[in-house]
Amino acid sequence: MNDFASMFEKATGQLPFPWQCALYECFITGKIPDSVSIPTGLGKTSVITIWMIALATHPYKVPRRLVYVVNRRTVVDQTTAEAQKLVEALKDPGLADLNQSLRNLCALPCESPLAISTLRGQFADNGEWRRDPARPAVIIGTVDMIGSGLLFSRYTSGFKTRPLYAGFLGQDALIVHDEAHLEPAFQTLIEEIHAEQNGLDDPAKVQRDLKPIRIMALTATTRSETTPFSLTDDDRTNRTVIKRLKAVKRLSLIAVDDEKHLKDLIPEKAKTLDGSILVFVRSVDNALKIATALDKGEHKGQVIKLTGTMRGKERDELVNDMRFQRFLDPESPPDGRISRFPRLYFCW
Question: How far apart are CA 112 and CA 79, in angstroms?
Fold first, then answer.
């Protein structure tokens, strides 16, 4: 375990939490949990790092590919950035043995033993994940791109290559479904694929696939009927964990008699707050009306709109907008991450 902690620290710059060490133990014993429920802010994305180290140290216990599925494009970008950091970390002399272990798994020469590919609409697939079936790969994509790929109907692909993509995604792969509670239909899909591959739908059948997919639902609010993997007793006495779990989070509720009044009430309340303000509403129509109401007087030109009806290209271009960048981590380059909100105003 000391070796894991050392490799994890070299790869991420931080010592692992107890739950991360415990999850690594699950990986190397072949007991990958179906559901992982970890509170927000405690590094759920580190599952990628844990998988990478486990694959290098116990290659026959861990799937060769990790497919990380999220339902939001900005989170795809953030996760891709985190995965790219691992590629850079593998150049560290202190991780030379880990690098070589991963490289030994590749069938073809490659610059990095870890392929990183992003699958999402409007962006070209770099193809790294499918050039060498033996090469360890992290595939990060949206629900629609990964789901269509598993169903032999991947977008932007011809009928000749769709079976290839389905094979890469559906064999020898660990599918990590982030925020699984938000996409129950996709979770049901991958569970049914897993059951079919393992003959679980009929007790009389034997396992059909040599390397069936493994599934991990990653969420802070699990809906699983079984007890999910979660924080350990050691985590509850860890200073950093305690600090994050007990961080002050203030919430004020304002009762509204009629939802129609929201478009008038929200601009009034937003103007009383300081700093950068983010307004969430569940109606595109309300979002447009609120933006129009705020984009006047001293706030003229300071308001931007982000809705699900915008084209992908337009949404991605917002990353370079100075108004959008106020919500980004000041120590990180503008890569689509929304990780710091000075002031939030939620409305449902």
Answer: 18
Residue 95 token pair: 């991780």
Average pLDDT over residues 13-37: 95
pLDDT tens digits, one per residue of 82-105:
899 999 999 999 999 999 999 999
* pLDDT computed for residue 329 by the predictor: 57
CB atoms closer than 10 angstroms to residue 149: 24
Helix (H, G, I), strand (E, B) or coil at 329: coil
Dihedral of CA atoms 321, 326, 329, 334 in degrees, nearest 10, equals 10
Q: How confident is the model at residue 15 (pLDDT cuts 50, 70, 90)?
A: very high
Amino acid at 16: P
In this structure, how many other beta carbons lie within 10 angstroms of the beta carbon of residue 323?
12
CA gap 108, 90 in Å, rounded: 18
Task: Report whether pLDDT(181) > 90.
Answer: no
Give CA–CA dist 101/3, Å, rounded: 14
d(CA 326, CA 338): 9
Output the six-digit token pair for 68: 């990380």
In this structure, of 9-13, 95-99, 141-145, the range with the lowest mean pLDDT score is 141-145
pLDDT score for 174: 97
In sequence order, what are the residues at sequence separation of 6 or more whose Cβ sits closer than 8 angstroms to the Cβ of residue 56? 98, 101, 102
Residue appearing with tokens 């790969």 = 137
Tell me how crowded residue 307 is: count the other CB atoms within 10 A of its CB.
14
Place of tokens 């699900």: 308
In 3-state terms, what secondary structure has residue 111? coil
- Among 216, 217, 155, which Cα is nearest to 182's? 217
Q: Which residues contact 96 (CB under 8 A, 6 or more apart)?
A: none
Q: How far is CA 325 from CA 176, 231, 244, 329, in A?
A: 29, 33, 25, 8
